[in-house]
Design brief:
about 40% helix, alpha/beta, 7 helices, Rossmann fold
């Protein structure tokens, strides 16, 4: 029996976070007919020491739009600043409003622990926003949404503490699409940061693929309560 189409909302702290970590998974779902939306909480405009934040922010917005077209996703941009993402009620209600508008069946965001402040804040904001989006008493101007079937945390080199791969998605056929999408970002191609983003995440996909019994894969972690299974017999 054919599965119902999914609606996936992937929420990253900065433009590029979601695409480089799990863009291959998003591309796979898009090509299967699922709806994919990427919400960028900040542009990540502070990451280029040779450009002003305003100029680099505009560049990253264009890069995010180009990457989204290749992935087959709709990009959304929140009005918050790189390095200053706050875990306030205003931000949580903003994200709750996006959740109620997009009405996702699945949500992807950052793991809870990170060396980057914005990543850890994004984790808090998204989880609280999902609760707010489900509460009738919370007014955002959109109807309540309680249809999220799962929240998944993507694997980022800056978010390693306590991350344990739980779910593997085979992306063997999506690596080249992923590569085309992420290299729309200058910081991925090189010349801004000394960190080898492209090599790192391509190698990580090969490692996770080996673990999963495929050529390439992307790994996610989930909350501990989501790892519980109750079955009448051994599967």
């Amino acid at each position: 029996m054919a599965q119902s189409p999914k609606t996936i909302l992937a929420i990253g702290a900065h433009c590029g976070d979601i695409e480089v970590t799990c863009g291959a998974v998003l591309a796979k779902h898009s090509r299967q007919g699922d709806r994919v939306t990427i919400l960028h909480l900040t542009l990540g405009e502070g990451g280029n020491p040779r450009m002003t934040p305003a100029d680099y922010g505009e560049q990253k917005r264009r890069e995010a739009e180009d990457a989204a077209r290749i992935i087959g996703a709709e990009p959304l941009f929140a009005p918050y600043r790189d390095g200053e993402l706050p875990a306030t009620e205003e931000v949580k209600r903003y994200v709750a409003g996006v959740v109620r508008t997009v009405r996702p069946s699945h949500v992807i965001t950052h793991w809870r622990h990170s060396m980057h402040r914005d990543h850890a804040t994004a984790h808090i904001v998204v989880n609280d926003a999902l609760l707010l989006a489900s509460l009738q008493a919370v007014e955002t101007g959109q109807p309540v949404h309680r249809g999220v079937q799962g929240i998944y945390y993507t694997e980022n080199w800056e978010d390693p503490e306590g991350f344990h791969p739980f779910l593997y998605i085979d992306t063997s056929n999506e690596l080249e699409i992923w590569r085309e999408a992420v290299t729309k970002y200058q910081f991925i191609k090189g010349g801004i940061s000394s960190f080898p983003y492209l090599d790192y995440y391509a190698s990580l996909a090969r490692v996770r693929g080996a673990e999963a019994g495929s050529t390439y894969a992307v790994a996610f972690d989930v909350d501990s309560h989501a790892k519980r299974r109750t079955l009448p017999t051994l599967p």
